[in-house]
Amino acid sequence: MRRPDRDEIQAAAGLLHRLAADHGLSNLRHSERAEQLVVDVADDRSLFDLVEFESAVEGLVGWRPDVVSSGAPGARPAGAIGAGTRVA
Amino acid sequence: MTASEREAARSELAAAENALAAVVGLLTPEEQAHDSAHVRAHARYLWIVVGSRLKNYCAIVGIDRARGTLGAAIAMRHKLAYSDPDQIDDRTVRRATLVDAAVLAAAIEDASAALR
Questions:
Q1: Strand A77-80 versus strand A25-31 pairing type
Q2: How far, in Å, CA of B100 to CA of A56, rounded?
Q3: pTM for this predicted structure
Q4: Closest Cα of chain A to B98: distance in Å?
């Protein structure tokens, strides 16, 4: 499993947003940790959806982001990914 | 597949099924009323057991990369086992127990049936 750097995540912003929407994830943000994404998880979605999103990304671009729900106590969002995202 | 491999595969699926039933059992009204850190930690542990057993099953039957709900359970196991504890949103674990566990149980039953 290869983890991405921040530049790779930013370059794949469009893909990440599309796949995230398919899995009930939204408001993608960078994290203080370079390889992490912080996402909002819809109320009807689970950790299954989060890891399936990671797997879907890996299947397309060859790297696997470490995706963290914004509801996790240690989530540290650090700025929007790409254009058109909502950052609360 | 040899008879002993088939038996080992069945054993792993049975263990996964038992752990899955145990984590669903944590959602009794009494447990929900407490929603303690202990219950949440127990749920995380049981999901790790589920995923570990399914990973073992896949290794025995020669599945390099599981797909579908089995693949998700194995990936969830990796995330729970190797993430810092504060990187996990227990709400998403609970939702997996409420919604995904039933689908996974059916998949495990299908896999077990294929070994008979």
A1: antiparallel
A2: 18
A3: 0.92
A4: 9
pLDDT per residue over A75-85, tens digit each? Answer: 999 988 885 44
Of all residues in chain A, the one with the smallest CA distance to B96 is: A46
Which residue has 């989530």 as its token pair?
A: A75
CA distance A74 to A71: 8
Name residue A37's beta-bridge partners.
A30, A67
Q: Give the three-state DSSP class for A28.
A: strand
Please give the mean pLDDT across all residues of chain B: 94
Query: Measured between alpha carbons, how far is A14 from A31 in angstroms, rounded to an integer?
Result: 18
CB contact under 8 A, B100 and A46: yes
- Under 8 Å CB pairs connecting chains A and B tally to 68
Nearest CA in chain B to A31: B87
Handedness of CA B95, B96, B100, B101 (dihedral sign): negative
Transcribe B4-47 into DSSP letters.
HHHHHHHHHHHHHHHHHHHHHHTTSHHHHHH--HHHHHHHHHHH
Q: Which residues, other chains included, contact B6 with Cβ-Cβ below 8 Å and sequence gap of 6+?
A: B115
pLDDT at B30 over 90: no
Q: Return the biggest CA–CA distance within chain B.
A: 47
Q: Pull the structure tokens for residue A55.
A: 């797997």
Q: Is the dihedral of CA A57, A59, A63, A66 positive or negative?
A: positive
- Model ipTM over 0.95: no
